[in-house]
Amino acid sequence: MSVLEVKDLSIELMTTRGVVRAVDGISFSIDAGQTVTVIGESGSGKSTTAMGLLRLLPDDLAIISGHAVLDGVDVVSEPRKFAKLRGRSVALIPQDAMTALSPVHTIGRQLGEAINRKGAFSKTGLLKRSMELLQQVRIPAPEVQLKKYPHQLSGGMLQRVLIAMALAVDPVLLVADEPTSALDVTVQAGILDLLMELQERTQVAILMITHDLGVARLVSDRIHVMKDGRFVESGEVEQIVDQPQTDYTKRLLAAVPRLGRWDGEPQLNSADGDESSASHATLNGAHS
């Protein structure tokens, strides 16, 4: 059964240069426990898709049409009903943790607000739940971290806090908008591993938005390649990565950087060069 079913979704944006169709009739679905990734270069429409599905675009600047049914509610035609689901059935993991969190409030206060939306927790119960969530996202010494301010934590730790805040409402769908783009490669891997571990345990569906084909390859069950507001190619992750059908997807794959020869490394002869080059591991995804 689909957690999210999207059919013919279009989003038109009002700009100073007129109306722009940022998303043009896309369709996809996400099942429980599944990760679906929308990938494309900057300006392709992928983040607009996510913000439109969450109804976070200004009503006077964005016209949304089509259908997008989440938890029995049509996001497009029933925005008021959907507003009650946002922060409950669906949660967002934003891109930049430092700007997403208030710099003048502690981690504990901000996490507590996410947990206690209905005021059902006592002070003791709220502390206990906050510590449980930080433990789930593998933050050490949670009682200590709750007393800190965002600037006192690393980027990777802050991203884990945002994941904890998203999980606080037990969502059926997580929308992750470039959740690792501001992090270095080692920290990226830890965050992605954490998301997959949490998904395996809770069966939450994930909509991943990224420009990074390396990220998409690691976490996706299905990939939709987006260009100029449309899906130019869709398929299972193995199909997209191993047998791309469009030139655009092939260019995204070709843009994945690989390690070259290190400084001080002896120059290999031509017979060994291809083999050595092929053996270098891919470090990161496409930054088109």
Task: Walk me through what this model shows.
- It contains 12 helices and 10 strands.
- With 288 residues, it is an alpha/beta fold.
- The longest helix has 18 residues.
- The C terminus is likely disordered.
- It is found in: Cell membrane.
- Its main location: membrane.
- It is a peripheral membrane protein.
Brief write-up:
Residues 276-288 have a biased composition (Polar residues). This protein has 12 helices and 10 strands.
**DSSP helical segment count:** 12
The major beta sheet can be summarized as: 6 strands, mixed
Shape: globular
Distance between the termini: 34 Å
DSSP strand content: 25-35%
Structural class: alpha/beta
Number of strands: 10
Q: Give the strand order, joined by hyphens, for the main sheet.
A: 6-7-8-3-9-10
Mean pLDDT metric? 85
Q: What order do the SSEs take from the amino end to the carboxyl end, as H and E?
A: EEEHEEHEHHHHHEHEHEEHHH
Helix amount: 25-40%
Q: Low-confidence spans: pLDDT under 50, at least 5 residues?
A: 270-288
Radius of gyration: 21 Å
Protein name: ABC transporter domain-containing protein
Membrane topology: Peripheral membrane protein
Pfam family, one: ABC_tran
Keywords: ATP-binding, Cell membrane, Membrane, Nucleotide-binding, Transport
